[in-house]
Each structure stands twice: as structure tokens, then as C-alpha cells.
Here is the input.
Amino acid sequence: MNLPILNKDLSTLITEDMSTDEFIAWTLTRFAHQRLVLTSSFGMEGCALIDMYAKHGVPLTVIYLDTMFFFPESYKLRDTLIEKYPHVDFVNRGTDLTPDQQAKKFGDKLWERDPDLCCRLRKVDPMYTVMGEVDVWITGLRRSQSATRANLKMIEWDWRYQLIKISPLVKWEREDIWAYIQENKVPYNELHEKGYPTVGCTHCTKMVPGSTIGEYSRKGRWSDMDKTECGLHGGEGI
Ligand code: SF4
Here is the structure.
């Protein structure tokens, strides 16, 4: 591994006055020779970010973790994105553990009895495997998504995965993302039109009555449980 910078305050490398596009261009130049991936769970932010990076016309790897419990709308969106962005490599690095194998080993409906274990098996452990092969990780996280994301930096060292984490959308609001999606004709998950502000597994994601498409809310995630995050972001979820 050839990391350019270790254990420094990486945010001093840039200024947040840069436009998002300037920052994206800078990341592509600065980390051109590192193993760089963008992760997406096929929510609105991820789609916008894929489009922003794809506009630069350089090869890009997008990693997604198929839990095998995605909504049909998410698989449909994945196929649409693959068709729209031929120079983007969409790679599934989800678990090999099938739902049947999980039920045999851990019992039926693990997501109801022990959702943390289910998330670990189907999201967190596969994510650690992927991140161990990566130098620079691009995320669609935004500061206003939750209190745990309020201090996100555009670029920072991620101690959990031991890599450089880049979050170009930290300053964006959900309504800005939605406006970008519309203006740039970016494919987006049809679940958002059906009352799902965020996108997750079928078992743990519900529609939020009264929500509007440009409004962010995590109310539909694990709504019957004392759980708010899947653990991919160290207490923050996607
Ligand atoms: S979101 Fe639910 S179904 Fe998906 S991995 Fe986590 S507990 Fe399992």
C-alpha cells in the first residue's frame, strides 16, 4: 500500500471554500495513484455523487454491499446506473452468506431478534474486508444527516478503517441533492417517490407517511427497534 499521507490533519490540505466540483477534481488528481473507491447503498446522495464523479470521465469503482435483502427498486436502479455510466465499475462486495444459510446457522428472522448481528454479518464484516483493500474512500455523507455526522470533514483520516475518507457532500442539504438530481437527470431510487427517505433492507426499512421526496429522515429505519445505525460508519449508518 502506498498511502501519501498518514496521521495528519488532512483537512488542512484543502479549503472548504472550494466548490464541490473543484474538490472532486482535486481528489481525482491528488489520489490518482491510490486505490480509490466510492461506496453507495443506492440512496439519493450516492446517485448524485456517482454522477458528479462520472462527469470527470475517469475510471471509477463504485462498491455496493448487496445484503440480498435489497428492494427490487434498488436492483433496478443499479442496472440503470450501470447502463448510464459505462466507464464506472459497479462491484458487489456483499456477503456470500445466503438468507437460507443465515437462517440455518442463526435462526429465522435474525433481523428481528438480533439486528446488530444481522447487520454485522451482511454489512459490517463485508465492509471491513473491502476497506482493507482500499486507500481512499469516497462517501455521500452529509453533516445535517444526523448529530453523529455534524463534524464530518471533506477529507479526514478514518481511524476505524485506517484510510483516507472523502465526503464531498458534507455541506449539502437534502433539498440541494434533490435539485441536483432533477437538474442533471440523474437516475434515482423509485423508493423515494413511494415515501422512503432512505434506502435499506426490505426487513428494516419502512415508508415514512407524510415525508416528501426532498426531505431527509431516518425515521423509516429500524423504526420498531432501539437501533438507528447499521455500524458501517462507526456509529453512523448508511
Ligand atoms: S438492515 Fe436489517 S436485514 Fe439488513 S442487514 Fe441490518 S438487520 Fe439485517
Q: What stands out?
A: Residues 67, 69, 111, 115, 118-119, 122-123, 200-201, 203-204, 230 surround iron/sulfur cluster (CB under 6 Å). The chain has a mean pLDDT of 89.
